[in-house]
Amino acid sequence: MKSWIIGTAGVFGALSRYGLSVLWNEGTGSFPWGTLACNMIGCMLLGYFSEALLPKWPQELRTAVMTGFIGAFTTFSTFSMETVRMLQDHRVPLALLYIGVSLLGGLLAVSLGTAAAHRRKEKAI
């Protein structure tokens, strides 16, 4: 496995996440829309790619997309830190909402991505 392929894909994933965070996270005290969007989009892409595209791609390209791009695009650590900060700021209901939306939304997004991939396969037949 060529590490530079994963690293390059990771750079693009990280820059994409940063761009969404700049667009949607308005500053301290606001809801972390950018992180939530990145994680939901990443979950949907992961579900879709893993079913529709990646099985046909070479292993190096699959790893670059899954580990490199999507791994750098999504972020569990930032989600965790933002949640802790909300709790420290005594915004418990907002923190609980963020946790619930992130977990359930992530599962739903993966399911939607997988379902879209299955529909794509059925139409191709």
From TrEMBL:
Keywords: Cell membrane, Ion channel, Ion transport, Membrane, Metal-binding, Sodium, Transmembrane, Transmembrane helix, Transport. One of its GO terms (molecular function) is metal ion binding. One of its GO terms (cellular component) is plasma membrane. It catalyses: fluoride(in) = fluoride(out). Na(+) is not transported, but it plays an essential structural role and its presence is essential for fluoride channel function. The chain crosses the membrane at residues 31-49, 61-80, 92-117. InterPro entries: FluC. It is a multi-pass membrane protein. It is found in: Cell membrane. Its main location: membrane. One of its GO terms (biological process) is cellular detoxification of fluoride. NCBIfam families: crcB. Fluoride-specific ion channel. Important for reducing fluoride concentration in the cell, thus reducing its toxicity. This is Fluoride-specific ion channel FluC.
